[in-house]
Amino acid sequence: MANLFPDITPGVTTGSTAATVLNALGRSDESAIKIVSGSSVLTTESGYYKEGTLVFSKNEKKIYELSSGSFIDSGSTIAPSNKIFSTGDIRQVELYRSTLSGSGNFDVSSISQAYDHLVIYLVARSSVEAENDRIRIFLNNDTTATNYRYVTLNTKTGAAAARGSGDEPDLYYVPAATSTDDNGYLNIVDIPLYASDKRKQIFSRMGMSNLTYEWVAITTVGWESTAAINRITIQPDGYPTDAFAIGSFLQIIGVKTV
User: Could you say which DSSP state residue 4 is in?
Assistant: First the structure.
């Protein structure tokens, strides 16, 4: 989690016996503290941030408030004004990030079930000897193509808008080996309610452009399963013969309403 209180002032004492922020070990680096009220130790932390009367505990992910030497919140419950997020706020957390150092695919397992939705950013290139290459997404290691159904709408320079569909987990195209070096590409993939017990739907927006043409596509993929998604694999359709090239990038973000 990012430092919400960038002005770090460790080892502060309030000057009151009612509530005190103490260095737990008395060390000069002050990397550990205790928050006490009277004779009771309310929390011991290996690290913290402090700004004004707010102390943010890095381990417990809670905020303690010290006001005029009085301990306002023991940490067992956090008053709404002291929450890091308010009810209804949307929190986004990076769950995975990788840039390939060799050719391969992206196979992400043990995905946290603690979020409402997933957002995937893919910036990639295929090694196949062609201008473009189709890519696929598999969920929970289910590689049976007929368990998926895709529909896509796309258009590119010099061609009429077209529609495609089929029984496979198709996320459409990435640039490939013979594509020009200036070919820009981004695919953003949304997977709403990925941890639910409902059938899963994937929504993808792909954009590709170079000095010759522009190409955009919107694709939906349905997975005929009610299982919670805990593994995502994305790769060219000819993998492992064809693979993503060195430098291909994938990021997965968890989205949750607090």
Answer: S
Strands (E), the chain: 20-23, 33-37, 40-45, 48-51, 54-57, 62-67, 70-71, 90-99, 106-108, 117-123, 132-139, 148-156, 162-166, 170-175, 184-192, 200-209, 214-223, 232-236, 249-257
Question: Could you tell me the two tokens for 64?
Answer: 């303690």
Nearest to 169 by CA among 224, 250, 244: 224
Cα distances from 38 to residues 16, 19, 56, 71, in angstroms, run 9, 7, 20, 10
Question: How far, CA to CA in Å, does 234 sit from each of 139, 170, 221, 238, 258?
Answer: 9, 10, 13, 12, 29
36: left (phi over 0), alpha (psi -120 to 50) or beta: beta
Using an 8 Å Cβ cutoff, are 221 and 192 in contact?
no
Q: Which residues of 215-227 are buried (b: 16+ CB within 10 A; e: fewer)?
A: bebebebebeeee
**Chain segment 34-69, per-residue pLDDT in tens:** 544 444 544 545 555 555 555 555 555 555 555 433
Contact of 249 with 122, CB cutoff 8 Å: yes
Question: At which residue do the structure tokens 């299982």 appear?
Answer: 227
Q: How confident is the model over 93-111, as pLDDT tens digits? A: 899 999 999 999 999 999 9
**SS3 sequence, 101-158?**
CCCECEEECCCCCCCCEEEEEEECCECCCCCEEEEEEEECCECCHHHEEEEEEEEECC
- Could you give all domains of the chain from N- to C-terminal order, each with its CATH number? 20-82 (no CATH), 90-257 (2.60.120)
